[in-house]
Design brief:
Layout: H1 7-10, E1 21-23, H2 30-36, H3 38-48, E2 50-54, H4 61-71, E3 87-89, E4 92-94, E5 104-107, E6 115-126, E7 130-131, E8 134-138, H5 139-145, H6 148-157, E9 159-165, H7 173-177, H8 182-191, E10 195-198, E11 204-210, E12 213-215, E13 222-224, H9 238-248, E14 255-259, H10 267-279, E15 281-282, E16 291-295, E17 299-303, E18 306-307, E19 311-321
Parallel strand pairs: 1-2
Antiparallel strand pairs: 2-16, 3-4, 4-19, 5-17, 6-16, 6-19, 7-18, 8-15, 8-17, 9-11, 9-14, 10-11, 12-13
Helix pairs in contact: 2-4
Length: 334
């Protein structure tokens, strides 16, 4: 089959409640198969928003990294991350370190940054004994399903992310910015429209206002594109939230979100957003060796709780600038 053959698109298995699945016949050469079918795979992602490739037999980080690099035009570093990752090689990381017994709510990678991946790639080297699926949801459908009054307000105001970086919770300053040099971190914040303030204890507090609804740069479809629910304090386990507020204060939480104008996002709104996400969630249990390609703008992704070992690599590919998704709000520090 030639790289541009449309036949690969017709082989995609479309089942309700599951991401599109393509069964590959890699014959032990995953890297060669990926290179030979790159254009068709990218076309499948454009057509469906994501595609799960089964049968590549990815078993080790080195092979997976070669495959990921052949499918993306460019890999980008993980900056402003909210949770730590292990780096396997340039541009290839572990999935975000998140408690295995907790849900990682649906979101779009780095939706709070001025530049974010257009393509997310996940390679499962070791599937968990139970749970742990990387779930997906169509962002345009989610936007349509949310109350118009709510989405119009967020489209008008954008959303506000507040963070406190320390060495105890979430990504550390060095993990998030790739440096421990204060001047370099301050320069990054200034050049990326992030308001920042260094605290007496050495921690850093930041705020940034971003668009909650964007237009896909290829298809032109409007998409719900943010991390309003995932990074909000009301998504936390209640006991964890109470502990963090008690220890760090309401203004010192590792992260939380607000309306773009500064008003708090209520628990009821966070619950509603997550309920709409759940109603549009597609899931398929990982099988060791799988590869999942996700259009990061059109498709939200998350992770279900799991038991046992789970090794999934992640790569952030084909960076897109927020300005390419206009019309958007004017981004700013607050």
């Amino acid at each position: 089959m030639s790289p541009s053959s449309p036949a690969l698109l017709t082989d995609v298995d479309l089942r309700p409640g599951s991401p599109p699945i393509l069964r590959a016949d890699a014959a032990g050469d995953a890297a060669g198969w990926a290179a030979g079918h790159r254009d068709a795979l990218r076309a499948a992602v454009t057509a469906h928003g994501c595609v799960l490739v089964r049968g590549l037999g990815l078993r080790d980080p080195a092979t997976a990294a070669v495959v990921l690099r052949r499918l993306a035009a460019r890999l980008m570093p993980d900056r402003e991350s909210f949770a730590p990752r292990r780096t396997y090689s340039d541009g290839v990381h572990s999935s975000s370190k998140w408690p295995p017994n907790q849900q990682m709510c649906l979101h779009h990678e780095l939706s709070y940054a001025l530049e974010f991946p257009g393509l997310m790639m996940f390679a499962c080297l070791d599937a968990p004994a139970g749970g742990g699926a990387t779930v997906v949801a169509d962002a345009a459908a989610v936007l349509d399903a949310l109350p118009a009054e709510l989405t119009e307000r967020f489209a008008r105001e954008g959303w506000l992310l507040s963070r406190t970086y320390n060495d105890e919770i979430g990504a550390t300053l060095t993990e998030a910015f790739g440096t421990e040099d204060r001047d370099a971190v301050s320069g990054y914040c200034r050049s990326h429209a992030i308001e920042f303030a260094w605290q007496p204890d050495g921690s850093l507090r930041t705020r940034q206002r971003r668009s909650a609804v964007v237009r896909h740069p290829v298809t032109g479809r409007r998409c719900w594109f943010n991390q309003i629910a995932f990074l909000n304090e009301w998504t936390m386990d209640p006991e964890v939230r109470e502990y963090l507020v008690d220890v760090y204060g309401a203004d010192g939480l590792p992260f939380t979100t607000r309306y773009g104008g500064g008003d708090p996002v209520g628990e009821d709104v966070v619950r509603l957003i997550n309920e709409v996400y759940e109603a549009h969630t597609a899931r398929e249990p990982w099988v060791s060796g799988d590869l999942l390609l996700v259009d990061n703008i059109r498709t939200a992704h998350g992770r279900e709780p799991f038991q046992g070992p789970r090794e999934v690599l992640a790569a952030l590919g084909d960076p897109v600038r927020l300005s390419d998704c206009a019309p958007t709000i004017e981004v700013s520090a607050v």
